[in-house]
Amino acid sequence: MSKTESLVYVALGGAGEIGMNMYLYGYGAEKKRRWIMVDAGVAFPDMDSSPGVDLITADPEFITSKAHALDAIFITHAHEDHVGAIGRLFPQLKAPIYAREFTAEIARGKMEEAGQDPSEVVTVGAWPEQVEVGPFKVGFLPISHSVPESSAMIIDSPAGRVFHTGDWKRDPDPQVGEPFDPDAIAEVSKDGILALVCDSTNVFSKNPGRSEAELVGPVTELLKNQPGLVVATTFASNVARLRTLALAGQAAGRSIAVIGRAMHKMIGTARKTGLLTDFPDMIDINDAAQLPAENVLVLASGSQGEGRAASAQLSRGGYGKLSLKDGDTFLFSSKVIPGNEVAVARIENALAMQGVDVVGEEGGLYHVSGHANRPDLEEMHRLTKPQFVIPMHGEYRHLREHAKLAEQGGFSAVVAPNGTMIDLSGNQPKVAEMIDTGRRYVDGSVIYGAMDGIVRDRIRMAIRGFLVVNIVLDEKNRLVGDAWVEARGLFTEVGGVEAGLQSELEEVITRDLAKAKAKVRADDEAVEKLVKQTAINKANRLIGKKPEVTVMINRLED
Amino acid sequence: MSKTESLVYVALGGAGEIGMNMYLYGYGAEKKRRWIMVDAGVAFPDMDSSPGVDLITADPEFITSKAHALDAIFITHAHEDHVGAIGRLFPQLKAPIYAREFTAEIARGKMEEAGQDPSEVVTVGAWPEQVEVGPFKVGFLPISHSVPESSAMIIDSPAGRVFHTGDWKRDPDPQVGEPFDPDAIAEVSKDGILALVCDSTNVFSKNPGRSEAELVGPVTELLKNQPGLVVATTFASNVARLRTLALAGQAAGRSIAVIGRAMHKMIGTARKTGLLTDFPDMIDINDAAQLPAENVLVLASGSQGEGRAASAQLSRGGYGKLSLKDGDTFLFSSKVIPGNEVAVARIENALAMQGVDVVGEEGGLYHVSGHANRPDLEEMHRLTKPQFVIPMHGEYRHLREHAKLAEQGGFSAVVAPNGTMIDLSGNQPKVAEMIDTGRRYVDGSVIYGAMDGIVRDRIRMAIRGFLVVNIVLDEKNRLVGDAWVEARGLFTEVGGVEAGLQSELEEVITRDLAKAKAKVRADDEAVEKLVKQTAINKANRLIGKKPEVTVMINRLED
């Protein structure tokens, strides 16, 4: 245990997956360390691993267990995987939240949704403004990404300066918000960067990233040439893209209607914070339905195939009074996040059934990524000249590849997945400690751990089906009536009888219990074990399946 | 109802999804029609829509309900989505099965696995050999694809000739098996093709398809240049690819080990049927573990990230005595089927953690598709010059796009998704009838319908969690003891108490039952309704969740 003051970095989430970003920086002697957090985001559940869950967050236990050691939370930008957990986790974190204006507005919304006080979110100006918290001074350096006011965190400590990129891309002309500014990056880096903690999402993309500005021409051309109504979808938070689409629509003589709560929220926030001054007036979707189709552009949320979002609703028949028809066009100005392919294809098929033409990425004509590609990462290494690079925001394979890339460029690099605490104070990064990390599931109004067994039980019921066996035993441990079996999620029409499975199981359980020794019947655990075994074996013989079983033993008293 | 003799086509599966192919051709007056089936394949389940299911097949009810009307089943090739259901469905279909030698061997395996007589599968030679069944004469015209002996069905009837492509690609040099032969296709088409029923999988791929032969150089180069052990995965059935990989390994001085049951089966069958004469000798995986790493190539099944397959096992630590280490290479000589992205990435991350370099498609250097691209489809239209094109083997969007493509080339085309029966006899295709189609789930030892509610219940349990409420009522309808609640897949630590949820629910259910009128308590349905409502409302207040509820009412008799 070191008593020397040192600067440490550890990811609680985001370095091992793309999502649920949560990074900590600590300074001080180990026992007295003060901490700041960068980002508190969510990841999204899926049926494979987290059925029934609403949202996933990183487990903040490591920091929440240290009372009052957390001095501040900084939010780099307004994407869900960076800001989405702030409201739900705030009661545990209890530290002031700092963000730039647009991000702060979104963060306040998250606080309100979770019943927390939105005034805990403090608006901070861009670099060179700095927030002093404990031993840290932290500034928001504007950096281009696919949402306004994205910022790198410039984190100063007595041990030196860390450049935490947040999500970024190299875009000299992002249309909305600040361009990528190599001079500004070089300037903050000129006195030396201890560590570059850097986005790794697109490390496998070999060509330089492309600018949002490259889309304006093709999108305008496309919208002018479509004979019918056009619906365009993208990420709701991509304000620049929404503007590109809307202005192109306007140029094509189309009125603009926007559907989807998330999209309205983002456009509203961007207007309120002065980031979106030239967005055309919007019309109501029901009014749009009355106009000639070729005069309408609809911007719709749900680019990832989300079943309840506006795009999915449109594909299934309509939204409000608007429905699509033969000759209309649907533009996905977005990429499909891995795992969402089937959901997106479902929408494409539903649209095809209505005669709607689907236009996708078309080799990047209508979409550019918001993340830095391989050559852009190399440029960032060169601009900041860090003592070492710590890849973040990626699955393990991205982190490893990014570290290799940095090393190829002559930089030291360290792969530090979630829980690997790195001491940044020496000349070389070293592992200070391995801490426990994990996932928390937000589900209804409660939050619980991914390893608590709740979701494991759901998956088991979904895969195996479920049996409940009800037994009544009298005061002499004799079975009263027969065993009673209820089945869920199981094929029960055994032997051509509708509840044949249940009957067969009831018969064999009743028989086995009758045959069992009195000592067994007197013992709840022994009864449960016997009944489970009998039920599972018989079900397996009848339907080739070993269900989950719950046994309920009712004992009658004198 | 027409009494005229006519030729009809209908897809029971495969025209509306990629998978579970099952096509029917019928000839005769409507009441006396004789039928043949082409293919009987499976689709694969997923947690989103079919948790706990083993395999999915098309519902053959339309044909099995017509006793003895099915004269024969023809299998185009040995892929699971064409042959996989033959064993399980045979007891209902009960018609002789015809296939070429390699396919027949695989089909016999499917029959044996399902406890059926493999001798029901009859081996047929290639075109010009024909099988005469009822009013049909059917021949197997060799066509290139990614599994040996793939064939188009040349279906002659009194109404004319149908060209049913099966799965195909345009490959002049497929390495194993017969090349794409435009002259042979033109020859069988020269007297006129009534309908071209054609694979649509790759209709959105704009460039001409590439030959298997193009991979030989790059793969050999790659295997020569890797410093450590190389593992390569691909589809087990892609015998040509396995040969390409093995010969490249041999050229690079590597011994070849093969792991995975499916891969051994395919290699064995290809050797047995004389299709694979130059495949190098294989060594045991445990012997391979003793060799210098750079002298070993392992061919492993599981290219789609299947959790139990050899590739996944290797990524998690090892297979037999072999484990991977820093400097080894893992080659995915395959594409990721939509929906499998996350599973494949899981393997890539696990490999990255072991320091293993992953090589993927690399823009087609190490993988080519087995399906015909857009220009290849146009070539097929031109070669066969059909009266009309019926797109098959695709989701709806593929079928629609393929029909548009055919029409652009001057051909008539009709989109006929599953259940749309097309009369092929006239000058123009017309819809003869719409029939019910659906999916059957193979689950353990039983098969049931997708709409039977079994899987719906599983999904509900997985999303909502599950409560069982046990009630004992005496002969006077009085509650004996308290209600008893068991919870599965639910957060239960309410109020800091381990089973707080159950306690709270028991209390409120007991109270509500006590307050209920005697008439209510006397009626099982009324009790159930009351208990469910109380349980759901209370759970929603406590944990923000509305679980599935089963109520078990035990009534004591005098």
From TrEMBL, chains A, B:
For molecular function, the Gene Ontology terms on record are: exonuclease activity; metal ion binding; RNA binding
Any one Pfam family here would be RNase_J_b_CASP
The organism's place on the tree of life at top rank: Bacteria
- Which leading EC class covers this enzyme? hydrolase
Annotated EC: 3.1.-.-
Q: Which UniProt keywords apply?
A: Exonuclease, Hydrolase, Membrane, Metal-binding, Nuclease, RNA-binding, Transmembrane, Transmembrane helix, Zinc
Annotated membrane-spanning segments are 6-27
Ranges for domain Metallo-beta-lactamase come to: 19-219
Looking up PANTHER family in the UniProt record yields:
RIBONUCLEASE J (PTHR43694)
Identification of the protein by name:
Ribonuclease J1
